Amino acid sequence: MTALVLRFLPVLLALGYGFLAWQMSARRLAQRLARGSAPLDDPGLLPVLDRLGAALGRGPVAVRIHASPEINGLAAPDGQVFLTEGMIALHRQGAVTAEEIASVVAHEIGHVSLGHAKRRMIDYTGQSAVRGVLGLLLGRFIPGLGPYLAQTATRLIAARTSRGAEFEADEFATALLLKAGIGAGAQISLLEKLDRSGATQQGPAWFASHPPVPQRIARIRENLTRWQG
């Protein structure tokens, strides 16, 4: 029994480290968001967000504005939905519509409803274990490069998992927007606008956390054809 425990000790330690690292990261993120955010109270946006809440069969959707110039939406590990100041600024400038903002919120609600935060915690813990074990094994055969190769391998796994979650959240958002009577047109047009602006550029595709915009739009159209055909 002792020999068995010792054999798997590196894996157990890596799992424990991954779990603690995720918990600490999630706590820091929650604290940072709490300090730098305020409830959304834009009268031009609240009515369309209320339509999302009605489609979900609950009260108004609570959204907070995070003081960041980036153009983004975020589903926090505790289930809160955030939009950045950069995203809200586009609406105030007339560059995006209230319905397009609602499509971002619907996407983030999808992440929350589908349990992606919990899944990320499990994935992160597992990936930390894989990285630790691979680093030890590869380090024996390729001294100096083992940890780097292990890190690269786990980054590829994490990116692929994240892209899958984005497709799932897009699908949820499309269904919610249709039920709310908003339609998927706003979802597609916003993605097109962000893509043209360069806001969706992420570097090498294999390390990207989000699928390319043309793929996301194609998948949305496929879902619409399947549901409405």
From TrEMBL:
One of its GO terms (molecular function) is metal ion binding. GO terms for cellular component: membrane. It comes from the Bacteria. The keyword Hydrolase applies. Binds 1 zinc ion per subunit. Pfam families: Peptidase_M48 (PF01435). This is Peptidase M48. It comes from Paenirhodobacter enshiensis.
